[in-house]
Amino acid sequence: MPLTLCIDIGGTHLKASIVDRDGKMVCERAEIRTPYPASPQRLLQGVQTLAASLPAYDRISAGFPGVVRGGRILTAPNLGTELWRDFDLAGELTARLKRVARVLNDAEVQGLGAISGNGLECVLTLGTGVGSAVFRDGRLAPHLELGQHPVWKKKTYDQYLGEAALSAKGQKKWNARLERALGFVATLLNYDTLYIGGGNASKVTLKLPTTIKLVSNDDGITGGVRLWDSRFDECFADTREPKVVKEVSRR
């Protein structure tokens, strides 16, 4: 049974644990603050520190707060896009930790730990910024970077509902903002179920309908094991383990 080092890279904290094939953590999660400035080299050093404190593992999964394609970072709004643009995070994790790595957007990883696999399911993560993911019958839809989209009076979701807004406006006004934003998301996506996770999900005091569920922040770690499901192989064409091909004799 392969064990997976699952890493949740956030704007405030780096978290990691070892997860078994069934999505259960086999040890307590390790956590450190995200270094600032969060350059790739400094962040990778933090990840190596976390990995060294955990038991042995066979492969690596990581959730990253930005747009990720083929293991490479396209944007990193809350860590510094210019520092991260076109950075091969999957390749660097593989090189440093000597295990094959797969990397996906952090909200998508959270969703993989939370969704039922039935109908149109959406995920919002509330933390330093706002992450988002969409799934249809358990399959990942093209990435939607909702956090960078305008939501109210020229403010993006990140600016309207991120950690800075919560600190500035207080929990009551922040929840009023969240209620307004949830109405927009419902109109936009017409989902069957919406999951709310992330570090600030615990600050939600709204009375939520049955179609909206609060989920554990640990899903951002345990969902990492699902990156290795064969149905997601196409998302990681650049990071799959090479297959051994036998030469065919021409005689």
Head-to-tail CA distance between termini: 41 Å
What order do the strands of the largest sheet run in, or round the barrel if closed? Answer: 3-2-1-4-8
Query: Largest sheet, if any?
Result: 5 strands, mixed
Order of helices and strands: EEEHEEEHEHEHEEEEEHHEEH
Q: Which CATH-level-2 architecture of the largest domain?
A: 2-Layer Sandwich
Helix content: 25-40%
Cα shape: globular
CATH topology of the largest domain: Nucleotidyltransferase, domain 5
Describe it:
The chain has seven helices and 15 strands. The protein is of the alpha/beta class and 251 residues long. The protein has two domains: 121 residues, 2-Layer Sandwich (Nucleotidyltransferase, domain 5); 101 residues, ATPase, nucleotide binding domain (Nucleotidyltransferase, domain 5), CATH 3.30.420.40. The strands form four sheets. Strands 3-2-1-4-8 form a five-stranded mixed β-sheet. A five-stranded mixed β-sheet has the order 11-10-9-14-15. Strand 10 and strand 11 form a beta hairpin. Helix 1 crosses helix 3.
